[in-house]
User: Which sequence fits this backbone?
């Protein structure tokens, strides 16, 4: 829980800056006032989802590919909250966000799979060296 809260505070800081900049862009470009309470609640909720996603990505227990898939599923509600906060002013093509997220998830999963195979190979090599040393 301590690690999650540390991640949450960092994500909250950056999400606050990002949300306020996005609100400024929407106000300047579309001449629409967005309620501050709605933006604040959005920051809290999206920060919770993003920090949970990062925590799942960094989790070393369990299957790493499954953790990545669960992490990306945790991002979907965050995107929906952002769309709800800013409405159609910011996201006219919401399907593009999902396509980009899926492509990034696939690339991340492939990289994770390659790294885990290399890690398992190194562990096997070290175990063989230890067995040789114990036999000598």
Assistant:
């Amino acid at each position: 829980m301590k690690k999650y809260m540390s991640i949450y505070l960092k994500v909250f800081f950056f999400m606050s800056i990002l949300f306020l900049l996005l609100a400024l862009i929407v106000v300047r470009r579309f001449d629409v006032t967005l309620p501050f309470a709605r933006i604040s609640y959005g920051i809290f909720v999206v920060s919770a989802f993003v920090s949970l996603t990062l925590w799942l990505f960094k989790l070393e227990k369990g299957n790493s590919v499954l953790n990545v898939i669960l992490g990306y599923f945790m991002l979907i509600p965050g995107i929906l909250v952002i769309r709800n906060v800013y409405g159609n002013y910011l996201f006219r093509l919401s399907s593009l966000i999902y396509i980009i997220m899926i492509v990034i998830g696939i690339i991340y999963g492939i990289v994770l799979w390659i790294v885990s195979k290399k890690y398992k190979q190194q562990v096997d090599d070290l175990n063989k060296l230890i067995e040789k040393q114990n036999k000598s």
Residues 2-135 form one domain. The chain has four helices and no strands. The first helix runs from residue 2 to 30. The CA atoms of residues 8 and 51 lie 5 Å apart.
